[in-house]
Amino acid sequence: MHTYTRLPVTFTHGEGAWLWDTGGNKYLDALSGIAVCGLGHAHPALSEALCDQARKLIHTTNLYGIANQEALAQELTRVSGMENVFFGNSGAEAVEATIKLARLYGHKKGISHPAIIVAENSFHGRTLATLSATGNRKVQAGFEPLVQGFIRTPYNDIEALQIIAKNSPDAVAVLIEPIQGEGGINIPAQDYLDKVREICDKHDWLLMLDEIQTGMCRTGQWFAYQHSNVSPDVIAIAKGLGNGVPIGACLARGKAAQVFQPGQHGSTFGGNPLACRAGLTVIKTLEEQQLASRATVLGNKLLGQLKAMLADCGHVRDIRGKGLMLGIELDHPCQDLAAIALQNGILISIQADKVIRLLPPLIISDDEAGQIAQKVTAIVKAHAPKEN
To answer: What are phi and psi of 254, to 5 degrees?
Structure first.
């Protein structure tokens, strides 16, 4: 089905931060499959683990115990501080689980129509419930009637959230991204999550974080909320957890940890032995290679290089980032730059019409980071808007 407007390229293989197409052309991947391939392409440890697991066992069913699933849950709760995990197959499924969990939490409190507070310019997925939660009208258009039960608030606006709190007796949870990815790499105030946590505690709401894009060391910590003093009640993760193998997870703690009971949620493929072996290998590799701290060092370096190299560009409105999650905001729409970048041997994406998004693999070298800065700078400078 014609659900994508694809760029004119097909890749045959990759290695590290590089991809090759059917014509033998080489590209520097500054997108990582949209924050998925944190370990890059064809990582030897992951390739070997998948081959080994495929020779043993790929799937049974969640009607039985799954050793790899239990082991991965232990690792995820260890690095996150959460208590238990539900496994699905994607980020949308992970967020869907958080929505169901919040509604069930509300019903158990005696609220017949529980509502979840979500942010403008957010992105939570493309299932009917997650696109309803998403703060982007383009994603929702044509799929009405939307799922009800969502209250919208401006992102990074504590006063607006406080007003909602006073006027929304049916609210049971806040669902937000620690950093908005699809919305244009929007980074909130340093104390934003702390203040949201205070409001949630005051009103007995669940604090639920969508860490689909920010998780798995992307921002310099295992999860972006770990840059603050906050402990969420629920986290949704996916993308970088499997390095390309489809897997998603909903993590919970405290009053959220025992909300789901047998029969209230499930997945045929979620948490199967193969996907969980991938997740285990990713966590082990991230830890052994200290890629969280590496993301911080390289991210700061890349951010500094971009700011210095683009300092004289009047059409660059802002350059921002956290770890290896960076955005360059221009003062004009620049959707065509993704295709132009492809022609220049680098993969990027454009978000919110005006923001160049960079999500390179966490394993990139200093030299490759420098190449990203040089290539992106050249593209931005060469395609400045012409003055009238």
So the answer is: 55, -130
Measured in Å, how far apart are the chain's first and last C-alpha atoms? 41
pLDDT tens track for 192-201:
999 999 999 9
Residue 176: closest CA among 230, 101, 239, 116: 116
**Residue the block writes with tokens 């978000």:** 351
Place of tokens 């210095």: 308
Q: Residue 150: helix, strand or coil by DSSP?
A: strand
pLDDT of residue 388: 47
Q: Which of 105, 98, 84, 97 is nearest to 203 (CA)?
A: 105
pLDDT value at position 387? 64
Euclidean distance between CA atoms 124 and 163, whole angstroms: 24
Distance CA 36, CA 275 (A): 14
The label of the residue with tokens 């993760």 reads 237
CA–CA gap between residue 228 and residue 191 (Å, rounded): 7
CA angle 145, 149, 152 (to 5 degrees): 95
For 49, other C-beta atoms within 10 Å of its C-beta total 20
d(CA 205, CA 242): 30
CATH number at residue 298: 3.90.1150.10
Per the listing, tokens 């496994």 go with 87
Rounded CA separation 50/245 (Å): 9
CA-to-CA distance for 376 and 341, rounded, in angstroms? 8
pLDDT of residue 190: 96
Would you state the torsion angle of the CA atoms of residues 320, 325, 326, 332, taken in this order, to the nearest 10 degrees? -110
Quick one: 275 and 352 in the same domain?
no
Q: Which of 288, 305, 327 is the last residue of a domain?
A: 288
Which CATH number does the domain housing residue 110 bear?
Answer: 3.40.640.10
CB 129 within 8 A of CB 96: yes
* Residue 15: closest CA among 37, 49, 48, 40: 40
Question: Residue 156 and residue 183: Cα distance in Å, rounded?
Answer: 13
Residue type, 259: V
Residues forming the active site: 123, 210, 239
Listing DSSP states for 221-267 in one string gives: SSSGGGGTT---SEEEE-GGGTTTS--EEEEE-GGGTT---TTSS--
Please state whether the predicted TM-score (pTM) of the whole model is above 0.90.
yes
Residues of the chain scoring pLDDT < 70:
387-388
Per the CB < 8 A criterion, the answer to whether 215 and 235 are in contact is yes
